């Protein structure tokens, strides 16, 4: 047999991996199929997150957790959570905001909202800057029917003094007026002499001018005569309005008159009887303050109150009139 036939009949040699020299040493080249198998067998790796380093106290607590029994593990875990939650991050320029805690049902107390009273609506000539005594006169006296003779004489003197003084000034000197005029007793004032008259001074000056002071003394004398004729000064004054106050329903200050025909009639009759300084303007001021006329504006809270006071004063006035009539019959 020849050498050529031996070579043909020999089986094909198996290819083995060929060693390749490399700089780090000899290594075997692996085929692509051998590389794919281990890659398919590899499990997908989870994304790695950055784990914050726990403080030393937490580590120590974890160690104690491992060493403790299972019953205490839950309590130790809760303590670990509270420690880690207390750690706050400080931010520059940002202040920590305190969380508002809602009150419990026991803490919530229903407080009633305060009800503010509405301011009283007065006549327009009374302002928040008015004298308190002047405001008090408006709220308590002005427009209220008066039937007492001394009080009527006092108001008549004040109405005469308005020619020289204002209402606030008169009211501030009211006690002085009452002291110097003996509480406006007409029987006492009628006996004032000239010396007594000139002694009615306040801080070295007369309370009123001499003509006004003499008019007060003269009016006291005439008032005594009216009392003898009509039984009382009240009966004389209220007789001009049939013993019922006049109710004016004015809405604006400009509508309130300074004098009226009724005031002119009373003024004329009083002058004929010898009264002094009782012009129509003085008489109408006297009628307003004595309640003979109700000149409160309809928007003022005193308008209705003064009308209500009229009903209360009707019975006493009727009784007084009946007594006066009986006295006049007995005197005759």
Automatic annotation (TrEMBL):
Binding site for Zn(2+): 123, 138, 296, 300
The keyword Metal-binding is annotated on this UniProt entry: yes
Compositional bias segments (type: Basic and acidic residues): 29-42
UniProt region (Disordered), positions on chain: 1-85
Keyword terms: Metal-binding, Zinc
Pfam families: Adenine_glyco
InterPro entries on file: Adenine_glyco, DNA_glycosylase
Example of a GO biological process term: base-excision repair
Compositionally biased intervals (Low complexity): 52-85
Top-level taxon of the source organism: Eukaryota
Gene Ontology MF: a single term: metal ion binding
PANTHER family per the UniProt record, alphabetical: DNA GLYCOSYLASE SUPERFAMILY PROTEIN, OS04G0501200 PROTEIN
Protein name: Probable GMP synthase [glutamine-hydrolyzing]
Species lineage: Eukaryota, Viridiplantae, Streptophyta, Embryophyta, Tracheophyta
């Amino acid at each position: 047999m020849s050498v050529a036939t031996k070579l043909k009949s020999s089986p094909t040699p198996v290819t083995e991996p060929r060693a390749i020299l490399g700089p780090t040493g000899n290594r075997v080249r692996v085929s692509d199929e051998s590389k794919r198998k281990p890659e398919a067998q590899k499990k997908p790796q989870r994304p790695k997150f950055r784990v914050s380093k726990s403080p030393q106290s937490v580590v120590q607590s974890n160690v104690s957790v491992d060493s403790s029994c299972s019953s205490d593990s839950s309590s130790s875990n809760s303590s670990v959570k509270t420690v880690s939650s207390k750690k706050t991050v400080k931010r520059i320029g940002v202040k920590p905001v305190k969380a508002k805690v809602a009150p419990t049902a026991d803490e919530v107390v229903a407080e009633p909202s305060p009800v503010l009273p509405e301011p009283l609506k007065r006549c327009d000539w009374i302002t928040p800057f008015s004298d308190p005594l002047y405001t008090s006169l408006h709220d308590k006296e002005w427009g209220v029917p008066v039937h007492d003779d001394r009080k009527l004489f006092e108001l008549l003197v004040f109405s005469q003094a308005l020619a020289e003084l204002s209402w606030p000034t008169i009211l501030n000197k009211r006690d002085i007026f009452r002291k110097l005029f003996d509480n406006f007793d007409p029987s006492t004032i009628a006996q004032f002499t000239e010396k007594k008259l000139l002694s009615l001074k306040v801080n070295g000056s007369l309370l009123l001018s001499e003509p006004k002071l003499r008019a007060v003394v003269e009016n006291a004398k005439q008032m005594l005569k009216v009392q003898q004729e009509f039984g009382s000064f009240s009966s004389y004054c209220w007789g001009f309005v049939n013993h019922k106050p006049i109710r004016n329903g004015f809405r604006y200050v400009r509508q309130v008159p300074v004098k009226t025909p009724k005031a002119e009639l009373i003024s004329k009759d009083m002058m004929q009887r010898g009264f002094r300084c009782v012009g129509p303007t003085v008489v109408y001021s006297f009628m307003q303050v004595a309640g003979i006329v109700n000149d409160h504006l309809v928007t003022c809270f005193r308008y209705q109150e003064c009308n209500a006071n009229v009903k209360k004063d009707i019975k006493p006035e009727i009784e007084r009139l009946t007594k006066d009539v009986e006295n006049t019959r007995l005197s005759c």
